[in-house]
Amino acid sequence: MKRALITGVTGQDGSYLAELLLEKGYKVFALRRRTSTQNYENVENIKDKLQWIDGDLTDLASLITAVQIAQPDEVYNLAAQSFVATSWPQPISTGQITALGVTNMLEAVRIVKPDARFYQASSSEMFGKVVETPQNEKTPFYPRSPYGVSKVYGHWITVNYRESFNMFACSGILFNHESPRRGLEFVTRKVTNTVAKIKLGLVDELRLGNLDARRDWGFAGDYVKAMWLMLQQNTPDDYIISTGETHSVEELVNIAFSYVGLDWRNYVIIDRNLIRPAEVDLLLGDCTKAKEKLAWKTEVSFKELIQMMVDADLEKLKK
Ligand code: NAP
Ligand code: G4F
Q1: Of 37, 73, 176, 296, which sits most exposed with the smallest number of CB within 10 A?
Q2: For 146-195, how does the pLDDT look when each residue is reduced to its tens digit (9 = 90+)?
Q3: Phi/psi-derived region of residue 87, left when phi > 0, alpha when psi is between -120 and 50, beta in every other case
Q4: Ligand 2 atom showing the smallest separation from residue 145 Cα
Q5: Is residue 294 one of the residues assigned to a domain?
Q6: Pocket around ligand 2 at a 6 A CB cut-off
Q7: Active-site residue flag, 147
């Protein structure tokens, strides 16, 4: 039985990845941090099948203990302060978790179980003010937020541990991926949840920021398969994971409202407070390498994804 340690299990990706690894017969160890109220919403169905270990990405001692307990074959480092907008008002904690937290996790692996395979959750946000389109593994980074800067650090420290200590360390540069388990603050889920509320007569407006921003949005359930595939290869490497399509926030809004038979123009209000200090205008990934080397592909289209999220939000709210 293979053993995996996942950080960030209570988040969107961690929950899908844990399900995937349990299906594959892994013993799954899940790092959780102490919070005043525990939120297991994303992992309710598998909570009792996971081996929980208390720890925090900013506390190296707890990570060393976690690796000692789990003795993992594979480590998936998904934990992060992952909301870009919060990284401006909280740049230091974002750096401590999302940047230095990666070194803490790599150090714990290097000290306790250096032969474990390591996955780092890197991000298309590293491309920021993009210098070429589409973006591939060789595109230079130009981050636009404290979060993006932190992810660039996490990416390069992962590459550095691979090159310095010969560790099997991979960095997945994932473009935006969404699902019904997405946090309510991210734009897709904010839109689908509010559309469902409007449809049910619970609220009558949706306040948004920049409708022109474009993202390459895929389904999280497809993306965690790529994480696993990266760690099954003969050599460690870095991969872009994306759909190869880009859509604007306005298109997203239009699809969600149209799906429930409403015209978005009657409900959307532009709120200047939601415009970011520096924006990432356009993301579009070229995942040719992942398609060819990992035989990975997306299975859910953008429209299907948004409709799936609206359906899930309607169902949740009706309950
Ligand atoms: P998410 O839903 O925000 O989940 C983040 C997870 O990290 C949660 O389980 C959270 O625990 C945990 N966490 C935060 N701070 C921690 C700390 N100090 N110690 C231990 N755990 C901590 O994020 P996601 O969307 O699943 O994304 C997973 C990873 O991929 C993140 O690193 C994100 O930056 C990266 N990424 C995401 C996307 C995307 O589009 N989703 C794209 C590229 C990269 P709590 O439940 O206690 O808060
Ligand atoms: O959904 P978002 O908050 O995601 P963002 O900033 O692209 O970051 C996500 O994807 C990254 C990968 O590229 C991850 F690394 C990161 O962890 C996270 O998962 O915003 C998407 C776009 C932005 O351009 C934002 O300005 O939507 C625009 N937007 C417009 N109105 C809004 C809103 N975003 C949010 N969250 N809320 C709004 O009201």
Answers
A1: 37
A2: 999 999 999 999 999 999 999 999 999 999 999 999 999 999 999 999 99
A3: alpha
A4: 6
A5: no
A6: 82, 84-85, 123-125, 175-176, 185-187, 190, 208-210, 213, 215, 249, 274, 276, 279-280, 283
A7: yes
The per-residue pLDDT for range 104-159, each reduced to its tens digit, is: 999 999 999 999 999 999 999 999 999 999 999 999 999 999 999 999 999 999 99
Domain of 275, in residue numbers:
183-216+245-284+299-318
Reported as a single tens digit per residue, the pLDDT across 226-283 is 999 999 999 999 999 999 999 999 999 999 999 999 999 999 999 999 999 999 999 9
Q: Could you tell me what percent of the chain has a pLDDT over 70?
A: 100
Coil, helix or strand at residue 77: strand
Assess whether 36 and 170 both reside in one domain: yes
20 and 129 part of one domain: yes
Q: Is 240 in the pocket of ligand 1 (CB under 6 A)?
A: no
CA distance 216 to 281: 11
Give yes or no for a cis peptide into 89 (omega within 30° of 0): no
Cross-strand partners of 5: 29, 75
pLDDT of residue 38: 86
